[in-house]
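User: For my dataset I need records formatted as: sequence, then structure tokens, nothing else. Please produce one.
Assistant:
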Amino acid sequence: MGTTLSAGASAGKHADLMQRGLALHQAGKYREAEHCYQLVLRDNPKHPGALHMMGLLAVEAKKNAVAIEFFRKAVELEPKNPVFRNNLGNALLLGGSPEDAIPHLKKAVARDKTYVDALCNLGRAYRTQGDVAKASRQYELAL
């Protein structure tokens, strides 16, 4: 007779894999970190944290289109998460689409008005569009 993991055991396994992946990621062991995140996604393709972390790995690998897809999936699953929104906005900005980035960055800032990275990214998006006044305002808020 086969054994199946209960939902709680599966969640615990995923949490352990995510923690290990994060530690490896922070240590610069990107392949090993990716393996951990992929194991989570194999069990649960809609795990927002694993999708988000795969997006971060893709940004570091300079694979911006791949990063955007991972971040979009994470945002679809957790639309109110300001970190996911910020990182999607930043990836869009890196890809040369400030007009697509701004709505996500605005939502990140709306969820957390003290989120310095989102404020700076929003300022950078406005600056990219040539709107110095709006950019300056975001930078002032960040300070």
